[in-house]
């Protein structure tokens, strides 16, 4: 029998607030500011946004509660947590596969996340040295093409990003970072609002809003549906053990429901603000909304290139984007690192070194997919696209189904009731319905539909 009084050997958050900041730091990242706008652009706008919001509310929040709950009860790396809870509930040991798949997904995601994180470092330098001043849409595209076209530059920034990530992970998620996040996340929020303010002056703000919020399903397909759902998982860091491991450091007695809602709200707000900042600039400069991964790197420089004190604000923006990416990247590899510590008896530093090295190596594939390997395609996708599809659209949703079934059907109601300790019975019943029926069924339907489509 597991007593939920025990603490994780890896540590514990000092308070509920620290957990909210850390989990929000993990959730808010490139997914919100880089990925959400470009996916919205590719999938035609508002319909994608609507499905995304629905997925966050109906699947994301109950799933996040389930993951925090499982993590806090197990208090170990996701693999061992799943093993211990499976044992506690007389379920098959194969449930630990969820932990393995999540741990692997984290490393796969980090391998490409780090390349994009490297782009933010490169763009800090560009901004600080004035490359953006007076830049138009065409100039920004050319600058970006030149930047990603160089394998050496790509590998260089990717390497630096991996080093700073593993440095923090190696030291343990300590108070320095927690404190930094407490100040920097609000700063990012303020800067995003400033950018939205700039977008209002472009004359295309309403067009941007209409693109995001006037329902239009004409460009929406089964794949768009899968992508919107995958993005909800990705953006909230669900289905892969990050929230589970962060949950394992949560003090007993913290309200899981209100904390999860707070994290999901903050995360969605940042994504929507990013969209509201970026699309007016896209339309004002006749850029292509469906440009893909290059979108923010082609629009934001134009905005700052025309703003008073744009050099300062531009630099600041990319610094904060780097911070947002950084606080997410450390969470992506935390399951793998704690697994090496628990299962292979490594020290934290050794674990960080080996998992970091493996991830870096894999990241070279993404770094080259924008230059040397642009034409190397599997199933019509570049190495980067393939990794992204495999993780966000398959591994995270499948992991999510497993977690939902486990939390809803295999853990006893007594346990989940006591762990969640919600204010109202109605709240608990709603969670039960969402986690037992809606989440597994909806995610399965979208997956099956989409697999039938391509
Ligand atoms: N949620 C992060 C983002 O939006 C990415 C992430 C995914 C982090 C999964 C941890 C786990 O950028």
TrEMBL record:
It is found in: Membrane. InterPro entries: Na/ntran_symport (IPR000175), SNS_sf (IPR037272), YocR/YhdH-like (IPR047218). It is a multi-pass membrane protein. Signal peptide: none annotated. Its main location: membrane. The chain crosses the membrane at residues 17-34, 46-66, 104-125, 151-169, 181-206, 226-249, 261-283, 303-330, 351-374, 394-412, 433-452. It comes from the Bacteria. Keywords: Membrane, Transmembrane, Transmembrane helix, Transport. Pfam families: SNF. PROSITE patterns: NA_NEUROTRAN_SYMP_3. PANTHER family: TRANSPORTER. This is Sodium-dependent transporter. It comes from Candidatus Nitronereus thalassa.
């Amino acid at each position: 029998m597991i007593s939920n009084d025990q603490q994780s050997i890896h540590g514990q958050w000092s308070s509920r607030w620290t957990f909210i900041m850390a989990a929000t730091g993990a959730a808010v990242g490139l997914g919100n500011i880089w990925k959400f706008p470009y996916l919205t652009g590719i999938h035609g706008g508002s319909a994608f946004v609507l499905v995304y919001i629905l997925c966050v509310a109906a699947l994301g929040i109950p799933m996040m509660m389930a993951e925090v709950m499982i993590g806090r009860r197990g208090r170990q790396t996701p693999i061992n947590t799943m093993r211990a809870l499976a044992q506690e509930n007389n379920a098959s040991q194969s449930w630990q596969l969820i932990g393995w798949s999540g741990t692997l997904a984290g490393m796969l995601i980090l391998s490409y996340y780090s390349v994009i994180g490297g782009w933010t470092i490169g763009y800090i330098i560009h901004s600080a040295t004035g490359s953006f001043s007076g830049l138009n849409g065409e100039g920004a595209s050319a600058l970006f093409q030149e930047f990603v076209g160089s394998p050496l530059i790509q590998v260089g920034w990717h390497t630096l990003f991996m080093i700073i990530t593993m440095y923090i992970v190696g030291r343990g998620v300590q108070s320095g970072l927690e404190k930094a996040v407490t100040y920097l996340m609000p700063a990012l929020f303020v800067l995003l609002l400033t950018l939205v303010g700039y977008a209002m002056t472009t004359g295309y703000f309403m067009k941007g809003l209409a693109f995001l919020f006037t329902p239009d399903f004409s460009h929406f397909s089964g794949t768009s549906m899968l992508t919107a759902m995958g993005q909800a998982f990705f953006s909230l860091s669900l289905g892969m053990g990050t929230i589970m491991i962060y949950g394992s450091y949560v003090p007993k007695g913290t309200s899981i429901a209100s904390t999860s809602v707070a994290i999901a709200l903050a995360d969605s707000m940042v994504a929507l603000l990013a969209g509201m900042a970026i699309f007016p600039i896209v339309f004002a400069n006749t850029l292509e909304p469906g440009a893909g991964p290059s979108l923010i790197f082609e629009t934001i420089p134009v905005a700052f290139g025309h703003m008073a004190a744009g050099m300062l604000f531009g630099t600041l923006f990319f610094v904060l984007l780097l911070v947002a990416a950084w606080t997410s990247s450390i969470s992506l590899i935390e399951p793998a690192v704690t697994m090496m510590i628990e299962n292979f008896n490594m020290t934290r530093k050794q674990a960080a070194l080996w998992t970091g090295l493996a991830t870096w190596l894999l990241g070279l594939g993404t770094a080259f997919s924008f230059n040397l390997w642009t034409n190397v395609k599997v199933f019509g996708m570049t190495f980067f696209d393939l990794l992204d599809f495999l993780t966000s659209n398959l591994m995270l949703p499948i992991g999510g189904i497993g977690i939902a079934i486990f939390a809803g059907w295999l853990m006893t109601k007594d346990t989940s009731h006591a762990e969640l300790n919600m204010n109202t019975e109605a709240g608990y019943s709603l969670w039960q319905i969402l986690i037992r029926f809606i989440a597994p069924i909806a995610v399965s339907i979208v997956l099956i539909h989409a697999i039938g489509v391509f």
